[in-house]
Amino acid sequence: MQERYAYYPGCLASLSQKELDSSTRAIAKKLEIELIEMPSVTCCGAGDIHEAKPDYYLHISARILGQAEQSGCDTILTICNVCTLNLRQANMALKEDAAVLNRVNDNLREVGAATYQGGVDVRHLLWEVSAGEGYERFKSIAVKSLEGLKVAPFYGCQILRPAKILGFENSDRPESLERLIRACGAEPIDYPAKVKCCGFPIVLAREDVALGELVQPLEQAMDAGADVMVTPCPLCPLSLDAWQRKAAAFSGREFGIPILHLAQLLGAAAGIEESELKFKRHVTRLSPSVQAKLQVPSVVGTKV
Amino acid sequence: MATIENAHFTTLKGAYDTETMEATVKVRRFNPETGKSRFDTFIVTIPVTATVLDALDAIKDTCDGTLSYRKSCRMSVCGSCGMRVDGGAALACKVPMRKFVEAGHTITVSPMGNLPVIKDLVVDMTPFWDKIRAIKPYLDTKNADTPAKEWRINPADTALIHKESLCILCGCCVSECISMESDPDFLGPAALAKAYRFVGDARDKDTRERLRDLSGAHGIWDCTRCYFCNQRCPKGVDPRDAIAKLGAESFKEGFTSDAGAKHAKVFVDSTFKGGYLRETELVPKTIGPANAIKDIPFALQLARAGKVPNPLSPHKAKDNDEVKRLWKLLEKEAKGQPRRATAVHPDAVQEG
């Protein structure tokens, strides 16, 4: 774990998933890590720009990495699976071929943007707090035990696969989320679809295909007796939370399971206030019993 | 449960004089006559160098001759022995048993997913081959003359399709494809990687027609980017990357009317317009304004939770003019380049 990170919240945490950004900032403060802002960065492309305009994707990624370098940080902290994969993938392409990096830098220079020298690593919050010093530091701030809360970890895809770009843990049998759930005093629930897909990338373009994908983790987590699901990616909750009622209509089964951001779960265990965790910003609201287990005072009825 | 003498590998033993180990293997069985499936557990003595396929051979030779699975080359070339080992598709002949035995772990072997099971570990590959056939897996030079000499292609152009050319059609990627679980008509990673192998081939002249077909229903925009295919492929083909390349090629050809392509375009446009994604533009621009109106009750649900950002004040990154200039620069550069590699017909090449 570093003392300071170039913070890359990405689009969703800055827009519809603002609660993820505020929870992350609050937990970073508790962990005593400094988050350096990068006000000029763009979207990572979410895989869409990589697919539509790969050369443009490589350049905007280099610009983001270059800005982190300019800020004097050697690590970008991400809180989104998709940002993590896209930035790491570009970083790898830029670092492994000097000719590619030189060409990209020539172009960045020509438009007056910061160039990139290849000195930055991209790490997800999950990786930083689930192992080593970061994990010890989190355990020391996890003062509230979320005892009795059954949490279904949902990893999502792009923090696990492809392992040659991500490679933090065994992509078929990951355990970082389980370790953190236990550190919060809660109980991790096991189910096979925890490493499968939320369907988000195609939820607009191919809604039926995506619904067929996202009902799997919802059904399995419910069957395994989970109170809530937790995910390290802000796209998964859009799909699993925002599309949950559509998934219910699609599968003919009621769900009603709240989907938490990792930073919200960690924040609850660290005793951070609702004003920063913002549990009220979920489409599927927390039931009173879940609120009690999370020890969040009166979420329902508070003003959004 | 059955224990066996290790007579089956006498030839191997003679050749390598190898040490042996005792392995436990759980196998999913399916009997097509009764329609019933079950798990059988076998204990076999195998050489320490044995693969999962060697263990299955030992079981078949000495425990249960009715165990059915496909195999041929035993060296990760023919692509016959694709199956799931502990739930993940792999070539049985490429997975060593030793690490499992040393860890005291009993592996579970089951048939590949997304394909009907015929018996035990044998799946019906017909849907797989149908999709390979559907993408026209052969060169179309649109030239009636058979060249007298071989084609000449720049090595850099050959490298463009090197990874996709490595495919051995084993089906491991298809086994794990999440979009195929949900849409069985999706062309899937193997057929799409094969399609790119021809789209990217400098000799092929059917590129536009190929891309038109591939960018429609059940094509490239069905992929949910779960990356299971890249993870499972035993040959490093990286089918998901091939699908992304097909997306880029179809953009070059102007095939951008599919909802998936429109979705991608919103991301591209958002970056140089303001920096971050314009979330509120994503829905109407992907599914069209009429469908977006139908979704208003859904949007209101989201709005109540504060999930709809104000469309009138989109995010603006600092210094975003740099990105605008970058976009223009790259578009100009791309215009000055040939759209793709082309090969010269061999008969037109003058020997120097």
What would you say about this model in short?
The complex is a heterodimer of chains A (304) and B (352). With 304 residues, chain A is α/β, with parallel strands linked by helices.
Round the Cα radius of gyration of chain B to an integer and report it: 26 Å
Helix/strand order of chain B, N-terminal first: HEEHEEHEEEHHHHHHHHHHHHHH
Q: Provide the spatial order of strands within the biggest beta sheet of chain B.
A: 2-1-5-3-4
Strand residue content of chain A? 5-15%
CATH-derived topology of the largest domain in chain A: Rossmann fold
Description:
- The complex is a heterodimer of chains A (304) and B (352).
- Chain A has 304 residues and is of the alpha/beta class.
- Chain A has two domains: 4-125, Glutathione S-transferase Yfyf (Class Pi), Chain A, domain 2 (Up-down Bundle); 126-294, 3-Layer(aba) Sandwich (Rossmann fold).
- Chain A contains 15 helices and eight strands.
- Chain A has helices at residues 10-14, 18-31, 48-52, 54-70, 81-96, 98-110, 125-129, 132-141, 176-183, 207-223, 235-242, 244-251, 262-269, 274-277, 288-294, and strands spanning 4-8, 34-36, 75-78, 121-124, 150-153, 187-188, 228-231, 259-261.
- In chain A, the strands form two sheets. Chain A has a four-stranded parallel β-sheet with strand order 2-1-3-4, sandwiched between helices. A four-stranded parallel β-sheet of chain A has the order 6-5-7-8, with helices on both faces.
- In chain A, strand 5 (150-153), helix 9 (176-183) and strand 6 form a beta-alpha-beta unit.
- The radius of gyration of chain A is 19 Å and the shape is globular.
- Chain B is α+β, with helices and mostly antiparallel strands.
- Chain B folds into two domains: 7-123, Beta-grasp domain (Ubiquitin-like (UB roll)), CATH 3.10.20; 125-278 and 314-352, Orthogonal Bundle (Fumarate Reductase Iron-sulfur Protein, Chain B, domain 2).
- Chain B is built from 17 helices and seven strands.
- Chain B has helices at 10-16, 52-62, 98-102, 126-134, 155-159, 162-165, 172-176, 178-182, 188-199, 207-214, 228-232, 239-252, 259-273, 279-287, 289-294, 296-304, 321-335; strands spanning 20-31, 36-47, 82-85, 88-91, 107-110, 117-119, 122-123.
- Chain B has a five-stranded mixed β-sheet.
- In chain B, a hairpin with a 4-residue loop joins strand 1 and strand 2 (36-47).
- In chain B, helix 4 runs parallel beside helix 9.
- Chain B starts with 9 loop residues before the first helix and ends in a 17-residue tail after the last helix.
